[in-house]
C-alpha cells in the first residue's frame, strides 16, 4: 500500500479526544476502539502513518504497555500494519474475500451531510466547456475569481437585501478554504476564536490548524445566548468570532433578525471581526431564503466576512466557494492568498456561473427534495428510535437528536456492525461533551434513509441507555 501523510502524536491526541471510557484496566481496548472510530469516520485514511509508540506514550499520555496492546489488537484485526524500520500505518478494511478495499459493500454513509449534484450539472459542464477556448488564450490566473461569477454571487447577496459589489467577492476553493484564508489573515498562534458549542467539526479543526484556540459559547435550546457571547468577548478577548447563523450545523437553528442585530452589536462594540458561514443559507425548507432574516453583514458590514459555497446547494465536487468582505479586507485577503494558492480553477467557476444564470429553479428543486427527505427521516426516526427527541429543522441537512443518555460514541461504534457510518456528538464539541447528541443527515434518497434508520434503531437498541463496553465492539468485515 502507498503510504500517505504522517499524523503527529499531538494531532492524534486531539482527534481522539476523551477516548478513555472504562479506566486504566481497559485502557488498551478503549484506545483501540477510539482509533477504529477515527478510521471509519475518515479521520485517519488508509495509508496514514502513525506516531511511534514512544511519541504516543508522551502525547496521550498512557503507558507504553497500553499503546503496544492497542496496536496489537488493531494489527490482529487488519486495521493497522507495521514493518520493522518503517513504523505503523492505517490499513484499509479487509473484505470477506481477503482482498483490501477502502469501501464496504452495503455501507451507508451518514457521516457526511452532502447531497448529490443538482440536475442540470452536466448541461452546465457542457456549456462551460464551450466557453473554455476564450480562457485558454489567457494565463488562467484569477486571484479574485472570474468577473462574471463574482457578479452573480454579488447579485445573490443583493437579492437578499445586502447590496454587494463584485469587488467585495473573492472566489475560493470551497468554504473550508475560505475559512483557512481568513484565519491565516486574522489570527496567529494562541489567538482565541469564539465559536458556537456545538459547531461544525471541520471549522474547529481549521481553527486548531491555524494554531488558534477555539473558545466555545454554548447554544441553548432557544439558540444563541447573546449575554453569554458578550461575557465571552469580555473575558476571552477573541481575535475573531465564527458562527453559522442560518440552519446552524449541527443544531439546525436559525438566528432571528433581532438576534443578529444584538449579536453583531456586541461584536461591533468590541471591534471583533465576525466570520459568518452561510454554506446552507439557500436550503430554507419552509420558505424562500430571500424572505429570511437579513444577512449578519447588514448589521456590521465592515467587520463581517461572509463565507459561502456551492457544495451543499449544488454539488460538493465543484469545490467552489467565496468570501464577501469589505474592500479593505479583500485587499488583505489577496496578499494572504498568494502564499497559499493563486486562484480557483477556471472550469469549475464556469460551471457554477452557468448554474447561477437562472438560480431559482435549481435551488427550488433542491429545497423540495431535501424537504421530502427530511420528512422521511423524521418519520423513520420516530418509528425506529422513539425514545429520542429532536426539533424538526426548518432548513439545512441534518437532525440533531437527543439520545436521552450519554451513548453517542457507543452507538457510532456499534453502528459500524450494521453497515452505518456516523459522526458521534463529541466531534461537534470543542473539548468533548455532546455525548447525548447525534446528528442524522437526510441527504440520501428516501429508500436509503428508511433502511439506514432501521439499522440505526437496531444499533441504538443494542446499546440501550447504559451502552456496552467498547472492547466488545467488533469491527465488521463485509
Category by helix and strand content: alpha/beta
Number of helices: 15
End-to-end separation: 20 Å
The chain-level mean pLDDT equals 89
CATH topology of the largest domain: Aspartate Aminotransferase, domain 2
Oligomer: single chain
Work out the strand percent: 5-15%
Question: Over all CA atoms, what is the radius of gyration?
Answer: 23 Å
What form results from the Cα inertia axes? globular
Low-confidence stretches: 94-105, 466-478
CATH homologous superfamily of the largest domain?
Answer: Type I PLP-dependent aspartate aminotransferase-like (Major domain)
H/E order of the elements? HHHHEEEHHEHEHEHEHEEEHHHEHEEH
Overall number of strands: 13
Question: Can you tell me the CATH architecture of the largest domain?
Answer: 3-Layer(aba) Sandwich
Structural domain count: 3
Main beta-sheet annotation: 7 strands, mixed
Major sheet strand order: 4-10-9-8-7-5-6
Amino acid at each position: 500500500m502507498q503510504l500517505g501523510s504522517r499524523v503527529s502524536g499531538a494531532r492524534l491526541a486531539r482527534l481522539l479526544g476523551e477516548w478513555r471510557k472504562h479506566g486504566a484496566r481497559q485502557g488498551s481496548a478503549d484506545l483501540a476502539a477510539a482509533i477504529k472510530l477515527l478510521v471509519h469516520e475518515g479521520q485517519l485514511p488508509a495509508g496514514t502513518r502513525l506516531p511511534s509508540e514512544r511519541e504516543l506514550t508522551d502525547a496521550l499520555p498512557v503507558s507504553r504497555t497500553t499503546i503496544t496492546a492497542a496496536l496489537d489488537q488493531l494489527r490482529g484485526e487488519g486495521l493497522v500494519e507495521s514493518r520493522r524500520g518503517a513504523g505503523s500505518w492505517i490499513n484499509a478494511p479487509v473484505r470477506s474475500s481477503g482482498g483490501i478495499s477502502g469501501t464496504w459493500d452495503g455501507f451507508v454513509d451518514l457521516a457526511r451531510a452532502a447531497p448529490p449534484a443538482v440536475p442540470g450539472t452536466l448541461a452546465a459542464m457542457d456549456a462551460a466547456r464551450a466557453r473554455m477556448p476564450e480562457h485558454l488564450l489567457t494565463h488562467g490566473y484569477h486571484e479574485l475569481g472570474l468577473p462574471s461569477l463574482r457578479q452573480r454571487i454579488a447579485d445573490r447577496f443583493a437579492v437578499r437585501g445586502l447590496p454587494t459589489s463584485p469587488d467585495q467577492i473573492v472566489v475560493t476553493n470551497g468554504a473550508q478554504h475560505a475559512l483557512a484564508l481568513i484565519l491565516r489573515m486574522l489570527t496567529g498562534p494562541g489567538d482565541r476564536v469564539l465559536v458556537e458549542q456545538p459547531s461544525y467539526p471541520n471549522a474547529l479543526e481549521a481553527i486548531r490548524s491555524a494554531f488558534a484556540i477555539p473558545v466555545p459559547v454554548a447554544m441553548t435550546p432557544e439558540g444563541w445566548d447573546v449575554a453569554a457571547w458578550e461575557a465571552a468577548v469580555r473575558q476571552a478577548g477573541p481575535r475573531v468570532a465564527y458562527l453559522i447563523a442560518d440552519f446552524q450545523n449541527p443544531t439546525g437553528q436559525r438566528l432571528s433578525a433581532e438576534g443578529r442585530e444584538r449579536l453583531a452589536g456586541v461584536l461591533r462594540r468590541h471591534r471583533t471581526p465576525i466570520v459568518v458561514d452561510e454554506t446552507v443559507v439557500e436550503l430554507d425548507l419552509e420558505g424562500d431564503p430571500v424572505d429570511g432574516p437579513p444577512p449578519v453583514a447588514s448589521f456590521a458590514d465592515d467587520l463581517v466576512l461572509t463565507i459561502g459555497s456551492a457544495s451543499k446547494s449544488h454539488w460538493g465536487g465543484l469545490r467552489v466557494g467565496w468570501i464577501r468582505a469589505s474592500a479593505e479586507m479583500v485587499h488583505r485577503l489577496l496578499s494572504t492568498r498568494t502564499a497559499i494558492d493563486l486562484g480557483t480553477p477556471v472550469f469549475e467557476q464556469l460551471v457554477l456561473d452557468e448554474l447561477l444564470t437562472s438560480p431559482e429553479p435549481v435551488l427550488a428543486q433542491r429545497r423540495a427534495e431535501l424537504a421530502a427527505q427530511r420528512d422521511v427521516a423524521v418519520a423513520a426516526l420516530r418509528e425506529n428510535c422513539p425514545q429520542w427527541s429532536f426539533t424538526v429543522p426548518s432548513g439545512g441537512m441534518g437532525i440533531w437528536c437527543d439520545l436521552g443518555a450519554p451513548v453517542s460514541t457507543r452507538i457510532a461504534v456499534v453502528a459500524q456492525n450494521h453497515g452505518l457510518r456516523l459522526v458521534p456528538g463529541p466531534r461537534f464539541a470543542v473539548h468533548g461533551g455532546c455525548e447525548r447528541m447525534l446528528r442524522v443527515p437526510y441527504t440520501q434518497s428516501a429508500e436509503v434513509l428508511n433502511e439506514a434508520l432501521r439499522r440505526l434503531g437496531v444499533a441504538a437498541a443494542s446499546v440501550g441507555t447504559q451502552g456496552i463496553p467498547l472492547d466488545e465492539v467488533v469491527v465488521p468485515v463485509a
